Amino acid sequence: MSHALAIFSILSLPAAALYDSQKKVEHARLYGNVDSLAYYFVDLVVGTPPQRVSVILDTGSGICAFPCAGCNHCGHHIDPIFDIEKSGTASWLKCAFNRCPVGRCMSEKCYYYQGYTEGSSITGYWFEDMVSLGDMIQHNPQVKARMGCHSNENNLFYTQKANGMMGVGPGGLEHEAVLDQLLQDKAHVSRKIFSVCLAEWGGQFNVGGYNDSYHTGPMQLIPMMLRGFYGVGLTKMEVGDMSITNWHQSMIDSGTTYTYMNSKNYRLLATGVEKACSGQSQPCGGKKHGSSCWKLPNGPSKFAAITVFFDSVETKWVPEAYLYRKGDSDTYCYAFQDDGPTANTVLGAVWMKHQEIVFDLDNKKVGIAPARCSITQCSERHCSVVLGVSKQ
């Protein structure tokens, strides 16, 4: 993309959705892409005066944390490092009688450590401050919440462009975390609901409700199990004449890029997709490229949709979601992955694409609606980060 085209893409973006005071729903634009960043992130405005930080939206964890000034080992990220000393409303979470409400005591402050299976980890200290969702354009109300200041980050946390992580999983609820405080702000948010709508580039995050103006079909509700993660009862996937069962325990995790499954189901699903393309002179509009990719000059629209069953509820996993594009090329690869013979199922960001996923916490339901989550090819923050274009 040329520099001039990048500027045009930014200036031609639709206006960001503002806080809806009538429905009491907060809106924030999401940024990111499966291939270029491998995650989607949202802005937070923290402190007084406000400082903006970018955080990966993660339904699979509960911590909201990012690097702070004085960090011993932190990478270079999209936004300037947060400086707690410049916020007049910030305060460290202190120990009382050598005990902390969360974490453990170190240097008279409450300390956290979070490690991840691929080897990344973050450590730091908890603080409390005023925070609002999105950037200042959205005019979302402020709440006081607990967040983490990294004093050390490594591996993926060190190299990622987004500053930090915003966990919105059930493990962060009822513990003074950001999402919990937003949902408790009954003057501005009336329902204990949040929703995520992901496109190829960017999307939208809503707290207090959802945005049905994006929906291209009816929303269906399925039971949700809160087990430290958002569990759902995935029972079957069908593609062509292939029917695949035994999905074990299944969870929805926006912080996981791909959709992971056990080895047998991966092989059956890939075989079903390829079999549905067979018998054509140019299978599904292209040709196989390696073991899990395709050369598709006109995109993946000729591939069959995968029908995903949650007991009797049928939903569609469209090819534009289960295949992801490599850069600006005509190469598309499977966005589902083999996680070993006994693996459970993780429905990652790629499964959430082109759908609005609604988390109704009071009723313990997940809503799934096909949706057009974005109409742009390049998100504003992506363009400004990758191409060096100023934010307009």
TrEMBL record:
<dbReference type="GO" id="GO:0004190">
    <property type="term" value="F:aspartic-type endopeptidase activity"/>
</dbReference>
<feature type="domain" description="Peptidase A1">
    <location>
        <begin position="40"/>
        <end position="369"/>
    </location>
</feature>
<keyword id="KW-0732">Signal</keyword>
<protein>
    <submittedName>
        <fullName>Aspartic proteinase 39</fullName>
    </submittedName>
</protein>
<dbReference type="InterPro" id="IPR033121">
    <property type="entry name" value="PEPTIDASE_A1"/>
</dbReference>
<dbReference type="InterPro" id="IPR001461">
    <property type="entry name" value="Aspartic_peptidase_A1"/>
</dbReference>
<dbReference type="GO" id="GO:0006508">
    <property type="term" value="P:proteolysis"/>
</dbReference>
<feature type="active site">
    <location>
        <position position="58"/>
    </location>
</feature>
<comment type="similarity">
    <text>Belongs to the peptidase A1 family.</text>
</comment>
<dbReference type="InterPro" id="IPR021109">
    <property type="entry name" value="Peptidase_aspartic_dom_sf"/>
</dbReference>
<keyword id="KW-0378">Hydrolase</keyword>
<keyword id="KW-0645">Protease</keyword>
<feature type="signal peptide">
    <location>
        <begin position="1"/>
        <end position="17"/>
    </location>
</feature>
<feature type="active site">
    <location>
        <position position="253"/>
    </location>
</feature>
<dbReference type="Pfam" id="PF00026">
    <property type="entry name" value="Asp"/>
</dbReference>
